[in-house]
What we know:
Blueprint: H1 3-6, E1 18-21, H2 31-44, H3 51-56, H4 62-73, H5 79-93, H6 103-110, E2 116-119, H7 124-133, E3 142-144, H8 157-166, E4 173-177, H9 180-188, E5 192-195
Parallel strand pairs: 1-2, 1-4, 2-3, 4-5
Amino acid sequence: xxxxxxxxxxxxxxxVRGLIFDCDGTLVDTLPxxxxxxxxxxxxxxxxxxxxxxxxxxxxxxxxxxxxxxxxFDRRIAVDQFTADKERRTHALLGHARPLEPVAxxxxxxxxxxxxxxxxxxxxxxxxxxxxAAGLGxxxxxxxxxxxxxxxxxxxxxxLEAARRLGVEARDCQVFEDADSxLEAARRxxxxxxxxxxxxxxxxxxxxxxxxx
Length: 213
């Protein structure tokens, strides 16, 4: 984070009545753990794990990313098996997850003051484990994930459903995201979209089981 970015303050916009947060790389510092699981799963197949490619598709469900990998690199990876293996490895690492400040701090400040939801492209067991490990699970009565059967980001469906469950009009919601696909989904839903990357969200750092290559 640059010195200028570190001086910025993450705020709730005037008139906002509901807050919606992405999980990985926004509320919780899980991206290094996810990248470690990706690398280990690719390594079993003797394949490279291009970090730039994973960052490009941050926020999308695992099976969708595997299909995009097959198309980009002309591979024939079995999507369902790879997805199951990668998610099993991810789940095993998520107990190490920690909150990302200042996003988590903003959520804590507004707990009980504004209705809040989590909308993630990951599966429900991983999201719930990450939130619990970071001590944030109790803040969010509404959690939507890839397991809820709605079109993934950048489609707006998950955000619109979150607003409906919160009882807040979409135009009165503010979304906090670290991925381009999530920010696009929020805008398509008619919500205020806040990119948390200038505040320390997203990004990559080597972590458990990962050499950072």
